[in-house]
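Section: protein folds

Sequence with per-residue tokens
===
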Amino acid sequence: MASYQLTKIQEYDGHGGPASEVMGGDNHPKTSTTPGRYVVGAIEKHVSYGKYKGWSGVAWGTEMRLLGDVVMVKKGGSWIRLSEVNSEWGKFKGKEKDLTAQIKSAYHSFYNKLVVPDRWVFNDFGHVSVKYFVDRNKNWKMDGKEGFLGDFIHTTPGDEARVALKQPIVLSESHGCIHVKPFDIDTLIGNGYIKKGHTIEVHPYSEMLVANNLVRNHARPPYEVHFYPGAFKIAVYRIVQK
């Protein structure tokens, strides 16, 4: 059987969910980040269609504009009212002024400006999300009955705003995902550490120290990314077959 030596080459901050489930301030439960070995299946702007379809029902960076008192967003090359995007925003149909006020208030909470921005900067999953799955047949691609976990690697709108305002970032506890700093996720992706088909490993909360060296029986060079929720760290490992 093949054996692979993993050597740590980089380390970044990361924050997962709580070790034990608690209720979040948004009335959604915060759960632990699920330990295991996974494979990256997508790197994309996330759009929610379920419980987060309000602020996250519009992709990060979507063009916006104010037409009179109506907030408009660009979807599929056409401008539509925000109140037409989905059923959550549809609650504001006929109450466009109230919706405009809510958007201005949300932007003010992040950027201290009471305006409607020209881009959507409210998506809870930030400007890019890394989605991964359990590779049950170990072929490095999502097929059969495999599907994405609810845990993603992503930034937050608050941290995106802090970068824009040149403010320090202290990562917040997640609902189960892995929170990272905007610059760090861009570095992880840009340097090829996180890539479709690469491995993501989440360690148990009991591991409080980041290992410098590991051995795995099933790996795919050149890199793996490991998250240590107990240490609040993400480590990049270089892989060499022994």
